[in-house]
Amino acid sequence: MSLFDRSERATPGALIEARRRIGWEDSRSSLLDWYRKTGRSLPWREDLSPYRVWVSEIMLQQTTVATVVGYFDRFMSRFPDVGSLAAAPVEQVLKSWEGLGYYQRARNLQKAAREIVGRGGFPENLETWMALPGVGRSTAGAICSIALGLETPILDANVRRVQRRFLHAMDPGSPDEGLLWESSTRFVTGAGDPGLVNQALMEVGATVCLPRSPRCVDCPFSRQCLTLTLGLSDALPARKKTSRPLRVRTVLVPPGRRTVWLLKNECGRLMEGLWDFLSRPGPPGHFPDEPGWSGRHLGTVEHVYSHFREEVHVFEIDPGGSGGLSEETSRVSTVSLPDSARYPLTGVARKILAFLSELDRGENR
Ligand code: SF4
Question: Which CATH class is domain 12-235?
Answer without folding.
Answer: mainly alpha
